[in-house]
Amino acid sequence: MLEALLKGGVKALGLRRPEDLRRVVCVQPHPDDADVGIGGTVAKLSKLGCEVTYVTMTDDRASISDPSLTTDRIVEIRRKEQEEAASVLGVKELVWLGYPDSELFPSLEARGRLIEIIRRKKPDAVFTVDPWLAYEAHPDHRSTGMVASEASMFSGLYNVNPEQLAGGLRPHQPEYVAYFVTPRPNAYVDVTDTFQAKLEAVRKHGTQFLEKWDFYESYIRYQGKRYGGEIGVEYAEAFKIMPPFLLHYNVDAERM
To answer: In the predicted model, is pLDDT for residue 81 greater than 80?
Structure first.
């Protein structure tokens, strides 16, 4: 098994493809991150009947530089934009954890909240940003990916956050973590048929993208075509898929 794993990557484990999942929790730093990174996959999963839940870690208060807007108004605008984008992609549940934008760092409290969500929703997989992305300077992105990884690894253990079990929850470990915005993908999803929905969803985040939409659209299309070329389709999205048991003491993780 070890030799097959090192030669064939995680495919040797017989894991389900992202498009075959029935329940997914997507943990993102800010309201637009999943839509930009994997909006096509989310739309495809929704069309196939998968239950997709978005968990947004921060309130995105730093995303609009307009001194005429209060913090509360910015948060309200960004929530509304995410709600409209989620409607386009078929996302039915949005969970807001409300940490201050630009100030998220790994903590037992944040990890515990994600463990509780995983145990409650019982996802087949957790989607999140890759915390090991080179040159990623934003603490919200690094911290989101790391805390989501820790939560996925510990959510199946009885003696981690046991007070949740007293409340009726049960341990649950997802089959894998699927990282997006990753430099070393090992799985691709054909999103040719949902790519326009992705673009429509991203456009709903008007305060973030419409001012320079031509640039953002061209870059999103470039990435989609580049990933599509890896599997012989027009547009694709990329993931680094890792089962929780491989997220610890694994010097070969980068090449799996």
So the answer is: yes
Give the pLDDT confidence of 146-181 residue by residue, as tens digits: 999 999 999 999 999 999 999 899 999 999 999 999
Domains of the chain: 13-244 (3.40.50.10320)
Determine whether 99 is exposed, middle or buried from the number of CB atoms within 10 Å of its CB (0-12, 13-18, 19+). Answer: buried
Rounded distance between C-alpha atoms, residue 149 and residue 144, angstroms: 8
As a whole number of angstroms, the distance between CA 201 and CA 195 comes to: 10
DSSP 213-255: HHHHHHHHHHHHHHHHHHHTSS-EEEEEEE-GGGSSS-TTGGG
Give the pLDDT score at 2: 64
CB 121 within 8 A of CB 23: yes
Half-sphere exposure of 256 (CA within 13 A, CB side): 20
The pLDDT tens digits of the residues spanning 2-53 come to 666 666 767 778 899 999 999 999 999 999 999 999 999 999 999 999 999 9
Per the CB < 8 A criterion, the answer to whether 189 and 40 are in contact is: yes
> What is the separation of C-alpha 67 from the centre of its chain, rounded to a whole number of angstroms?
31
- What are the DSSP calls for 175-223, one per residue? SEEEEES-SS--EEEE-GGGHHHHHHHHHT-HHHHGGGHHHHHHHHHHH
Average pLDDT over every residue of 75-96: 98
Spatial separation of the C-alpha atoms in residues 71 and 58, rounded to whole Å: 13
